[in-house]
Amino acid sequence: MGTLSEAYKDVPMRLKHVIPLDFESTKVVPESHIWPETENFPLSDHILPSDDNEKSKSWIPVIDLMAPNVVELIGHACETWGVFQLTNHGIPSSLIHDVEFQARRLFSLPTEQKLKVLRSAGGATGYGAARMAQFLTKYLWHEGFTLAGSPVEHASVLWPHDHKTFCDVMENYQKMMKSLAHQLLLLMLKWLEVSEDELNWKLSMSQDALQLNSFPACPDPKSTIGLAPHTDSMLMTVLHQSHEGLQIFRDGIGWVTVSPIEGALVVNLGNLMDILSNGKFPSIQHRVFVNQIRHRISVAYFCFPPTDSQVAPFAKSECPIYSSLTVKEYLQIRAKHMEDALSVIRIK
């Protein structure tokens, strides 16, 4: 069964793109992190007026997982928005709090300690900058830590005598999120009317990864960005965010802030779901802005098939718009072409 690490080892990043800024000792935004404002990338949109924020809360679909018509609600949200906020999802608020606390504990460590678990140039797990960094002319106001499976190898380096709590919390969260993602995937595929045989094949193969994201308080938040506009690679992402900062792009509207709702998780679709649904469930472009006062934490759970499995539009698709390929092949195309990856495999 293929793993994430195997997919990335053949497309290594340059080490300079893996190492985040030393936020601990940075008092001003360095030139390397100052982004130019353009018509397509308006930095002035970082902080929306409060009335627009309230309006945006009513724009993004909010779905109760226990609703009797949940299949219809999720299907419609996936087709029209590619993102929704999920309530009554069954993940205890105490566990979400513990995950955020442990993430803050990790990112508050001295820089030299975090660098001991730096993600290798061709690696998938550990501490480091976002993979998109290698495609950008400027750097991001962000640091991350990726887990795939047990975090004990890295955690025992960070806390030689006190890593058990971190590992227990992360493993418990991954276990519960895997169950939730399985449930969401089932509902999405029911809306797409996938055959039972095809459905079972997809559901039995799901793997996962957990991405802890840190966006430190920034001395000049309007000059830089946490994560540049991008789509996610996998089937779906289930996100907890501590504070406002996430925005999604909506045709005809522009950038819309996904304001945190107490007790809700954000679900957005990725490239693999775009492929499987033959474009019916499009992956959503999103970005993250930073704050002058708050240190924003987000926890992203990614769901995907094993990297050696084949991905193609479901059999019901009469006119496939994407070529068939393995997850590993797609991730390697993505590692080379980033946001142009879907265009590369699109059937002309």
From TrEMBL:
<dbReference type="InterPro" id="IPR050231">
    <property type="entry name" value="Iron_ascorbate_oxido_reductase"/>
</dbReference>
<dbReference type="InterPro" id="IPR027443">
    <property type="entry name" value="IPNS-like_sf"/>
</dbReference>
<dbReference type="GO" id="GO:0009686">
    <property type="term" value="P:gibberellin biosynthetic process"/>
</dbReference>
<dbReference type="Pfam" id="PF03171">
    <property type="entry name" value="2OG-FeII_Oxy"/>
</dbReference>
<dbReference type="InterPro" id="IPR005123">
    <property type="entry name" value="Oxoglu/Fe-dep_dioxygenase_dom"/>
</dbReference>
<comment type="pathway">
    <text>Plant hormone biosynthesis; gibberellin biosynthesis.</text>
</comment>
<protein>
    <recommendedName>
        <fullName>gibberellin 3beta-dioxygenase</fullName>
        <ecNumber>1.14.11.15</ecNumber>
    </recommendedName>
</protein>
<comment type="pathway">
    <text>Hormone biosynthesis.</text>
</comment>
<feature type="domain" description="Fe2OG dioxygenase">
    <location>
        <begin position="206"/>
        <end position="305"/>
    </location>
</feature>
<dbReference type="Pfam" id="PF14226">
    <property type="entry name" value="DIOX_N"/>
</dbReference>
<dbReference type="InterPro" id="IPR026992">
    <property type="entry name" value="DIOX_N"/>
</dbReference>
<dbReference type="InterPro" id="IPR044861">
    <property type="entry name" value="IPNS-like_FE2OG_OXY"/>
</dbReference>
<keyword id="KW-0560">Oxidoreductase</keyword>
<dbReference type="GO" id="GO:0046872">
    <property type="term" value="F:metal ion binding"/>
</dbReference>
<dbReference type="GO" id="GO:0002238">
    <property type="term" value="P:response to molecule of fungal origin"/>
</dbReference>
<keyword id="KW-0479">Metal-binding</keyword>
<keyword id="KW-0408">Iron</keyword>
<dbReference type="GO" id="GO:0016707">
    <property type="term" value="F:gibberellin 3-beta-dioxygenase activity"/>
</dbReference>
<keyword id="KW-0223">Dioxygenase</keyword>
<dbReference type="GO" id="GO:0009805">
    <property type="term" value="P:coumarin biosynthetic process"/>
</dbReference>
<comment type="similarity">
    <text>Belongs to the iron/ascorbate-dependent oxidoreductase family. GA3OX subfamily.</text>
</comment>
